[in-house]
Amino acid sequence: MKTICLYFEIHQPIHLKRYRFFDIGTDHYYYDDYENERVINELFEKSYKPALQTMLDMIEENGKAFKVAFSISGVSLELIEQYAPEMLELLGRLAATGCVEFLAEPYSHGLSSLAGPENFVAETKRQAKKIKQLFGQSPKVFRNSSLIYDDEIGAIVADMGFKGVMVEGAKHILGWKSPHYIYSCAQDSRLSLILRDYKLSDDIGLRFNDASWSEYPLMADKWLSWVAALPEGENVVGIMMELAALGYYQPLGSHILDFLRALPMLAKDMGIQFATPSEVLAKNKPVSPLEVTYPVSWNDEERDTSSLLGNGMQREAFNKLYDENIVGRILACRDRRIQQDWDRLQATDNFRFMTTKNNGMGNNRGIYDNEYDAFTNYMNILGDFLKRVKDMFSDSVENDELNSLYTQIANMGEELNVKDNEISRLRARLKKLGDAEEEEEVEASPKSSPKGKDLKPAAKKAPAKKAEPKAKPAAKKAPAKKAEPKAKPAAKKAPAKKAEPKAKPAAKKAPAKK
């Protein structure tokens, strides 16, 4: 039986304000509050509210035969909570019907999956936790920002415990295969893939109101006839689009919601059903693994990441934003302002505004005149943000113990949920280690020469007698031959034969004499 798996993305970026180079270091607030409030309210009135209410009516009218799935980024949930709380009530009513499934995704709707697993896993868990708090569901299926996916991402998602992931059914990854089957991840067979039929999806999301389109006007029965005509055995039809397509990109005057409302009843008459992603996975087993070597997405005709990371400006911003030392500090930090700014700066829209591709961006760049303007403004803001992050800890993070503490603090806060006083104790230890590095460069640079960096500072601070405790700890980290220059000054006050044996063992007993 043909099954339609209908899914909608709900995401709106936090719009940045004009930020000059001279604001770096003085202004730490980066957002255009007026534009953020205006956009979310306009979307709610023109699209989200009428579309969600229509779906609620469809479930009630069709005996729960209509099923649908949503994913909502964490940054969008923050906007909705602040400016459109009525939308949360509508989503809660939909969740209570049992016909709606909420999916997991990165909290920031960013590119963390392409940068490294630590931050990607952490923010996915945060978003799933927020979905559980708001709607009472623990997500079982994952969808990435812009449907970005490859085999490595799939393996990470499987390790997080998700049963399935939504993937763009691009021709260059499918070849002769059909998008209307369930496949498995090539690196981990535990994870199943639900593929998007981009043609049937874009017929609704992009072409519905296009009078120049050969199939205009599109009627519900015509569209369902295309689904029914699929070859036997091709039973899973993934229809995925932005919720803003209903009423905003395709205006309400185009009767897009009337088209949607007519689908369940007509589908039933044609032997077609609706199902949530989890229901689809429960009833359909993977037919084979699907290898995706390079990242695929639902962006543009290329169905790749070129609109996000296709030019030098985008890659420069990406590399600075996801520098491993910066990510380590942020994962160890629990400063709410830093975390919130981090989430908002990661959003894919910030990179999309910088694209030089001729992909119809036009005036859809927010406050920016062109891609270079977008890059300059974003990098000014990022420069101030990175400075704030670096000021939280010592500049040197190459010491292995410091790095292990960063990871330990992050894991404790996110996974083990230990008591606050334990995390505070670790943070204090982390700060102490960072301060000690500034005074003792040997601690932070174990590969440096003890002879060059140990003896000179000790000579400035104290006579030879007091410098002995400083030289003796260094003897633990260096071969005996290099420790001899430190032992020779002590030979002036003692016979040479006795001083040489004491250079090594006395280093361990020196504190006891004091």
Question: How is this structure best described in words?
Answer:
The structure is a single chain. The chain has 514 residues and is of the alpha/beta class. It folds into 3 domains: 2-306, 7-stranded beta/alpha barrel (Alpha-Beta Barrel); 308-388; 400-439. 53% of the residues lie in helices and 10% in strands. Strands 1, 2, 3, 8 and 11 form a 5-stranded parallel beta sheet that branches. α2 (74-83) packs across α3. The model is unreliable at 415-419 and 441-514 (pLDDT under 50).
Brief synopsis:
With 514 residues, this protein is of the alpha/beta class. It folds into 3 domains: 2-306, Alpha-Beta Barrel (7-stranded beta/alpha barrel); 308-388; 400-439.
Strand and helix layout:
Layout (H helix, E strand, L loop, with lengths): L1 E9 L22 H29 L6 E5 L1 H10 L1 H12 L3 E4 L13 H19 L5 E2 L8 H9 L4 E5 L2 H4 L7 E4 L6 E5 L1 H8 L14 H9 L7 E7 L3 E2 L2 E2 L4 H14 L2 E3 L2 H7 L5 E2 L15 H4 L2 H10 L2 H9 L3 H11 L1 H5 L18 H20 L9 H17 L3 H20 L1 H4 L5 H4 L1 H7 L2 H14 L2 H11 L5 H7 L3 H8 L1
Parallel strand pairs: 1-2, 1-8, 1-11, 2-3, 4-5, 5-7, 6-12, 9-10
Antiparallel strand pairs: 6-7
**Total count of domains:** 3
Helix content: 40-55%
Q: Tell me, rounded to a whole number, the average pLDDT.
A: 84
**How would the global form be characterised?**
globular
Helical run tally: 25
Q: What is the CATH architecture annotation of the largest domain? A: Alpha-Beta Barrel
The radius of gyration is: 29 Å
Q: What percent of residues are in strands?
A: 5-15%
The CATH class label of the largest domain is Alpha Beta
* Distance separating the two termini: 85 Å
Structural class: alpha/beta
Q: Note poorly predicted spans.
A: 415-419, 441-514
CATH topology of the largest domain: 7-stranded beta/alpha barrel
Largest sheet: 5 strands, parallel
Number of strand segments: 12
